[in-house]
Amino acid sequence: MKRESILIVEDDPNFRLLLEYNLGKQYQITHAVNGIQALELLRKITPDLIISDIMMPEMDGYALKEALRNKTRTDAMPFMFITAMGTSDDRKRGLTLGIDDYLVKPVERETLLSRVRQILDRAKIYKQSFFEDLKTGYVRQNCGGTTLMQNGFNLHFRILPADVASGDYVEVFNYSDGSSIVILGDIAGKGMKAKYFSSTYWAYLKTVFHIYLKNCGALASGIGQLNNLLCDDSSLEDIFTTLICFRLGKDRNRIVSVNAGHLPVLWWRSSEGTLELIEDRGPLLGLDEGAVFPEIETLIGQDDRFIIVSDGVLEATNKDGVLYGIERLQEAVRRNGSLDPEALTQTLLDGVSDFRDLTPADDDVTVMVISRP
Amino acid sequence: MDIIHRTSDGISIIMIKGNMSADAIEHARSEIEGIVAVDGTELLLDLKEVEFIDSAGIGAIVYMVKRCRRSGGTVKIANVQGQVRDVFRMAGLDKALDIYTSIDTALESYPAPKRDILTGHIAGPILKKG
After folding, report:
1. Is the CB of A311 less than 8 angstroms away from the CB of B55?
2. pLDDT tens by residue, A296-332
3. Quick check: is B122 in a domain?
4. What domains appear along chain A, each with residue ranges and CATH number?
């Protein structure tokens, strides 16, 4: 498990060493000798706690805390003073800056460890309850299942979210003419901004698929419209999304697909027992206004399978840092392509899980199988 | 991940060293935002020393591209190779972005610098306050 990190800001080298000695066994320690150096370091690192002296050259502890309060990213960062300044006015001034604790030197080892632990535990509890609230608003419920589509195709998928709110999603739109559109997508990004994007993106996506595609029918054109909507929205600057969608019509010999920056489709040809990649794709969405997305028509045979995965599958890593990768996935599909869709999905997911062993997942893992019975 | 920044004829050349993975990107977030903070930035990314990129790294590149383009600047990328090239291709970035085989060929693609006749200074990005 990753160790919690502490930034120590202290100009006295002896006291700094003492703090590092006492805290270094449990926490990852970085240090700075004054507020200026601390601010420079904080451009690159995000510690779980900052412990700062007050009286330091160039920039003292008060000025450092003031500077951190003025930035959204560091405003709520846990912060404590350990200082020789012990008057009640000193303490009051520190507390009005919004610090978490104030200790006066000299500090007993047990007191130091206990107070540091309390701050870190409080921060952890706050984060957990924040994300629990977030979960009720944003988590997607469709983590898996089997659907017999209205046109006779079989759809099976499983999403294993890495976080409380999955970025991967599967959605089905059914139209009155008997056709359906199936989408697998991945909204990249973490934190509140990604969750905001998710809501905005869904609004655009449903608009396009309910209204535009219902009336016009051209899948590639619809994806182009969605792309342009996302490009126009300046609030979505550092989030991007990929998707792949399939139109399943009454003609069960044909699948029309459009791929916007997603991984290729693995097409298992049942009659030949072979695997083919469908690689034609346009760029990911929201980057290139006016981008063209090729529309691919595939004539599929009985018992053929389209296997589609999210990048969490290929990017799964084991304890040696080796990626699962496309070759392993292709090999797994070659070996198991003839299984029924539910068993195939589970086998592929088990393969990823076994490869990863105990290494924790840091991205959602999704496998979807579309088959023609 | 380290970011090394230099300027040549008004072009910001950013060499990224190390893996562009989720943790590295998170730690470099402020630096990345600082790079594209100036409106009209002409940005050239050198990925020669990047051996691995994941979706977080792609997100960082997408952010820089969108931010620069929106403010009137451009982004070009050089030395995309190995796993990075494969990921770019899968994400369709090889078609959506200006990618060059080397820094030199990327620099040659820019128009000749505009020099002020009187001062000899080269016009740079426009700094907007506020």
Report:
1. yes
2. 999 999 999 999 999 889 988 888 888 899 999 999 9
3. no
4. 5-137 (3.40.50.2300), 139-371 (3.60.40.10)
